[in-house]
Amino acid sequence: MKTVCTLIIVLFVCISSIAQKPRVIILATGGTIAGEGASADRAAYTAGKVPIASLLKAVPGIEKIAAITGEQIANVGSQDMTIDIWMKLNKRINEIYANNEADGIVITHGTDTQEETAYFLNLTERTDKPVVLTGSMRPSTAISADGPKNLFDAVTVAASPKSAGRGVLLVFNESIFDGRDVSKGNTTKVDAFYAPNLGPLGQVYDGRVAYYQSAMRKANKETPFDIAGVTSLPKVGIAYMYADADPVAINNFVKDGYKGIIIAGVGNGNFNKAFYDAIAEAIKKGVVVVRSSHVGSGRVTQYDEVDDKTLGTIVSDDLNPQKARILLMLGLTQTSNRDMLQSYFFTY
Ligand code: ASP
């Protein structure tokens, strides 16, 4: 009788611990984490080959952290990421949380444009629940592949109640980054991501999550960028400034009907006289022009060497050009008023 009672108690404890496990859904989009090479010691590989079910098999112990299910949203190298896939992700995330299907969401993604997807979702998700992106620098077939560890850490972060209300996060090489500030800072190393202006928010190590700071500018239920009924975004291009640059890209964006242009300027969002004249012309034709910088960190400030009032330009604050493009595309779905658009850059 005593043995039967003990068995019942053990069974009850097991069942209740399974029931209490947080539910995490993994939305897979491809990237090197799902990459396959011909052999373990060769660099050549193709991104976006391995399905999510196989990736999960390579992560021992992951099932102890959470009850995990996987969905394949796309399977591309993130150099081929599209706005359509962003829309699909946005829709599915909102649906998952509206239907209470999960307690946390992880997105596996190539590293090349991961910072862009993180920021897009940071601006558009109407949730306070965790959304965490991750990927890898080495394909799944490589020696010391970093994908399994990053996936384990990302699920740990997504399953942690501490991650709620922090906006969209990116977990890589044991660091937890804010989706707005994070950027890819190295082309090949496993420590590929950094947060150039503010540093990481926290760390994940040995199945434990520690936060040290919180981002102020993050996604939440009040985001003005509701894209529920939106099927495409206004076209915004990026023109790169360098010594003796020709404004051919600016002129062609205008000719092709682009609604906005981001200048990847030098220094504090500066450009030469040829760019200045082309920008003035573009603004006269109704195109919105934002000054950003390709320096890699720091703010672009108003009325410095460029008189934004006279020229009619907007500044990106500390958003790099590729992130400034996302905010301008979304901003233009709401307004074309220059002051309003500038206020978005000081708020989001
Ligand atoms: N080109 C790959 C991608 O972005 C690189 C990676 O995932 O690390 O999908």
Characterization of this structure:
With 348 residues, the protein is an alpha/beta fold. The protein has 2 domains: 21-222, L-asparaginase, N-terminal domain (Rossmann fold, 3-Layer(aba) Sandwich); 236-347, Rossmann fold. The protein is 33% helix and 20% strand. The chain contains 11 helices and 16 strands. It has helices at 2-20, 52-57, 62-65, 83-98, 114-124, 147-159, 248-255, 273-284, 308-311, 321-332, 338-347, and strands spanning 23-30, 36-37, 45-46, 67-76, 104-108, 131-134, 168-172, 175-178, 183-184, 193-194, 202-205, 208-211, 236-240, 260-265, 288-293, 314-315. The strands form 4 sheets. An 8-stranded mixed beta sheet has the order 4-1-5-6-7-8-11-12, with helices on both faces. Strands 13-14-15-16 form a 4-stranded parallel beta sheet, with helices on both faces. Helix 5 runs parallel beside helix 10. The longest helix has 19 residues, at 2-20. It is globular, with a radius of gyration of 22 Å. Bound molecules: aspartic acid. Aspartic acid is lined by residues 31-32, 47, 77-79, 110-112, 135, 137.
What is the helix tally?
Answer: 11
CATH top level of the largest domain is Alpha Beta
Ligand list: aspartic acid
Q: What do the pLDDT scores average to? A: 93
Supply the number of structural domains: 2
- Estimate the strand proportion: 15-25%
Helix content: 25-40%
Outline, from the CA principal axes? globular
| CATH architecture heading of the largest domain | 3-Layer(aba) Sandwich
GO molecular function, one term: asparaginase activity
Domain Asparaginase/glutaminase C-terminal: 235-345
Keywords: Hydrolase
InterPro entries: AsnASE_II, Asp/glu_Ase-like_sf, Asparaginase/glutaminase-like, Asparaginase/glutaminase_AS1, Asparaginase_C, L-asparaginase_C, L-asparaginase_N, L-asparaginase_N_sf
